[in-house]
């Protein structure tokens, strides 16, 4: 039987013991063996702290985000084999989708957040700069850096893929190396995904390690700077948290424990309302998805006392329709528990619940293509606690399977009180269309819940459901749920980051943070900052504008254009008792006038105004005052661009407007989209002619079989096709892939060197030569390139077919030629 290997100190290592046998939860057959005996855990942690930390922490947040995306794409291409393994854990296709592709989705989400919102530096400036001296020569701010340690991540058996990836999404993005310790049950699936993560070659050495089996004494070796993330039972979590190595070394500990989550049916949601039907569907889903093995599953069903019978009947009928059995069968809607050991534990808890509450539904016991003897199957079980304020067993005991308990309430006060008797939950839901009931109940129960999910007819179509934690929202809960906080968008990174206060002069803070600080030295040059590409802009690049004297006509005209007739701008007789001496210029006029002073009218790399932040007006500007503007590059944010957008980054500019007395009247931060420098040549004919001057008949090629003249005639043929001479009669790219290929024209990735022309047969040579020599070919090519420029000036709406990219317009043809010319000019070493 295959023994699962562990991945530590950069090697795949097999345990030296007998290990733990792992079984197919559906058939009972042995699948694999997990074994960690003989592993040197102390060495593993040290390897992560040294090699892993050095490699990961030196990457920028932006690059780590790109890393997550590449890993997720690599795994997505191989998802089929993960589904085949997931079925062996008892999961249906729908269960597996949540686990497998939900996990990949978490990586994609964090990649997107990083590329939109995090800096292209290994540290992260947190919050605004604080002025802590009268004259602004002494400032303070905070930076976040990766904690100098390793993260040990102990995951539960219910989500072998998502459980691993949701923790890694934040630790890897934060720059902290991790050791993954999955539950042995289902670890063969975790192992398969982890192998592919390593084989992708995307992760730096030491970033990840895998301990696939019993944890042994791994936690004995944690130290200050390390962190432990645990998902599992609250009892086990409390034991781990109190270990001397964790409690005594200030090791960061995050616990996400199972909890007795509830769902409340609103007083208004009577049978026949959309909310009643949604409630029944939601409870059934949460009882049967993953066979109830979810830390977010509904364990307590809180229902108006007069609707208990209706809910019990409707829920029983819905559960009757849920066929249980082999996940590979199309009929199956609920699979098995993860194994016999878990089955026995759920039965033990069910018997405890029976001691105080009535089992009112035990499900149908027929199985689809499976049997109870070999598999770990359990029918859904519904209990009724008729006195939930007296019988506490429902609020204390969790059966981690398809088991839930009905309980009645009288009013919103009671509903919230019952919700809180779970002593801390990951999630509670309210299903109602009564906003007053929802508001009153939700804020009263919020203190004992990590998430409150409200469902009704208004959001049902787009709702993700009671049991689905989302990457952009916190996953965790107080009290019994462990007090942990995972994900939550960028907040999830803070657990892995050290926050440090930085104090110093404006120039020192600028040097440390790479963000311009008011009062720091400005860098002036003859080149307008808006004429610089993203890569060329440096923090501190500045422009001092000419002055502009504000007139009464400016104030009147702006009032008329903007329709802002506020009395302070238009009525000098109404200013008594105000802060103004006379009619004052509009703040937004000052900002607009400032833009008019600092913008460059000439077309350049600045694509668009992206936004405005922190605009403040400090002093009034009256007619006769003269304003001058200082524009300074404050911060650069690299930006991932998809689709048909020009590759660009965001530059934040500090705008300081002063009057003739050098008093600051307005400060704002504007954001601009700034194009990145293209690696492809410009289509300017003189530029191309200059490049071709270096091409001779004997020029060697760096790849491919073309001769210099063949290359030139090949490019000329492409130009003629873009003019419709001749019109290409076919595109060889399948229709479903065409949009992706056209989008690729906009990015800065170069054309592949080994791409075969689709219009040529495998044994066919390039087009026959039509010019007498290379010089003639060059001249004809240049003449047609000039024709191309003129043609699209005269016919800007023209479109012509391309063999690979389909029908292209003027912009797309220009992008295609730039890439194509660059590709072949590099082939012959011309650029």
TrEMBL record:
It comes from the Bacteria. Residues 460-484 are annotated as: Disordered. Keywords: Oxidoreductase. Coiled coil: none annotated. GO terms for molecular function: oxidoreductase activity, acting on the aldehyde or oxo group of donors, NAD or NADP as acceptor. InterPro entries: Ald_DH/histidinol_DH, Ald_DH_C, Ald_DH_N, Aldehyde_DH_dom, HotDog_dom_sf, MaoC-like_dom, PaaN-DH. Residues 539-639 form the MaoC-like domain. The keyword Oxidoreductase applies. Residues 12-499 form the Aldehyde dehydrogenase domain. Transmembrane segments: none annotated. PANTHER family: ALDEHYDE DEHYDROGENASE B-RELATED (PTHR43111:SF1). This is Phenylacetic acid degradation bifunctional protein PaaZ. It comes from Chryseobacterium elymi.
């Amino acid at each position: 039987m295959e023994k699962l290997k562990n991945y530590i100190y950069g090697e795949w290592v097999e345990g030296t013991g007998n290990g733990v046998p792992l079984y197919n939860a559906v058939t009972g057959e042995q699948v694999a063996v997990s074994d960690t005996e003989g592993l040197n855990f102390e060495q593993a942690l040290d390897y992560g702290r040294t090699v892993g930390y050095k490699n990961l922490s030196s990457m920028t947040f932006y690059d780590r985000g790109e890393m997550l995306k590449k890993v997720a794409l690599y795994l997505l291409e191989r998802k089929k084999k993960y589904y085949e393994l997931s079925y062996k854990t008892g999961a249906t296709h729908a269960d597996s989708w949540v686990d497998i592709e939900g996990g990949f989705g978490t990586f994609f989400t964090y990649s997107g957040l990083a590329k939109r919102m995090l800096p292209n530096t290994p540290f992260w400036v947190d919050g605004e700069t604080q002025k802590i001296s009268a004259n602004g020569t002494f400032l303070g701010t905070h930076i976040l850096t990766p904690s100098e340690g390793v993260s040990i991540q102990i995951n539960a058996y219910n989500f072998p893929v998502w459980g691993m990836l949701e923790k890694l999404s934040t630790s890897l993005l934060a720059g902290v190396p991790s050791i993954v310790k999955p539950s042995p049950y289902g670890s063969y699936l975790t192992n398969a995904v982890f192998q592919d993560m390593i084989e992708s070659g995307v992760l730096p050495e030491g970033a990840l390690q895998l301990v696939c089996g019993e944890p042994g004494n791994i936690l004995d070796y944690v130290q200050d700077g390390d962190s432990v993330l645990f998902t599992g039972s609250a009892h086990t979590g409390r034991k781990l948290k109190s270990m001397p190595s964790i409690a005594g070394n200030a090791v960061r500990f995050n616990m996400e424990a199972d909890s007795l989550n509830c769902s409340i049916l609103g007083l208004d949601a009577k049978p026949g309302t959309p909310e009643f039907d949604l409630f029944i569907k939601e409870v059934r889903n949460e009882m049967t998805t993953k066979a109830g093995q979810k830390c977010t599953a509904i364990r307590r069903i809180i229902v108006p006392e007069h609707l208990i019978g209706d809910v019990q009947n409707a829920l029983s009928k819905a559960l009757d329709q849920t066929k249980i059995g082999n996940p590979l069968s199309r009929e199956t809607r609920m699979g098995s528990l993860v194994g016999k050991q878990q089955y026995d534990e759920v039965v033990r808890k069910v018997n405890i619940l029976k001691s105080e509450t009535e089992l009112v539904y035990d499900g149908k016991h027929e199985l689809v293509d499976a049997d109870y003897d070999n598999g770990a199957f359990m029918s859904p079980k519904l209990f009724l606690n008729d006195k939930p304020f007296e019988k506490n067993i429902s609020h204390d005991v969790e059966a981690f399977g398809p088991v839930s308990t009905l309980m009645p309430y009288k009013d919103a006060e009671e509903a919230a009180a019952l919700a809180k008797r779970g002593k801390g939950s990951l999630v509670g839901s309210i299903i109602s269309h009564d906003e007053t009931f929802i508001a009153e109940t939700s804020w009263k129960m919020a203190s004992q819940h990590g998430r409150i999910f409200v469902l009704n007819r208004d959001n049902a179509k787009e709702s993700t459901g009671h049991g689905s934690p989302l990457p952009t929202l916190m996953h965790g809960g107080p009290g019994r749920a462990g007090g942990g906080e995972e994900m939550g968008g960028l907040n999830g990174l803070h657990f892995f980051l050290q926050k440090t206060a930085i104090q110093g002069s404006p120039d020192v803070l600028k040097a440390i943070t790479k963000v311009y600080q008011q009062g720091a030295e400005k860098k002036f040059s003859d080149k307008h900052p808006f004429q610089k590409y993203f890569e060329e802009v440096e923090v501190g690049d500045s422009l001092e504008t000419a002055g502009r004297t504000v007139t009464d006509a400016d104030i009147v005209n702006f009032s008329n254009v903007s329709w802002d007739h506020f009395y302070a701008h238009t009525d000098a007789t109404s200013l008594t008792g105000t802060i103004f001496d006379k009619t004052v210029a509009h703040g937004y006029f000052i900002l607009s006038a400032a833009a008019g002073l600092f913008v460059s009218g000439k077309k350049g790399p600045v694509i668009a105004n992206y936004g405005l932040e922190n605009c403040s007006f400090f002093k009034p500007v009256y007619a006769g005052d003269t304003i001058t503007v200082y524009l300074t590059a404050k911060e650069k944010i690299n930006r991932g661009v998809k689709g048909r957008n020009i590759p660009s980054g965001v530059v934040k500019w500090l705008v300081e407007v002063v009057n003739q007395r050098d008093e600051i009247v307005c400060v704002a931060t504007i954001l601009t989209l700034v194009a990145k420098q293209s690696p492809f040549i410009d289509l300017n004919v003189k530029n191309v002619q200059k490049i071709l001057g270096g091409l001779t008949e004997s020029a060697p090629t760096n790849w491919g079989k073309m001769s210099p003249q063949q290359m030139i005639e090949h490019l000329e043929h492409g130009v003629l096709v873009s003019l419709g001479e001749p019109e290409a009669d076919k595109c060889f790219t399948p229709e479903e892939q065409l949009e992706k290929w056209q989008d690729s024209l906009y990015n800065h990735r170069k054309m592949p060197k080994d791409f075969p022309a689709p219009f040529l047969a495998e044994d066919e040579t390039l087009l026959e030569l039509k010019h007498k020599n290379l010089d003639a070919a060059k001249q004809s090519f240049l003449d047609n390139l000039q024709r191309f420029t003129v043609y699209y000036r005269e016919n800007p709406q023209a479109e012509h077919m391309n063999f690979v990219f389909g029908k292209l317009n003027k912009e797309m043809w220009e992008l295609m030629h730039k890439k194509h010319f660059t590709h072949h000019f590099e082939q012959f070493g011309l650029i």
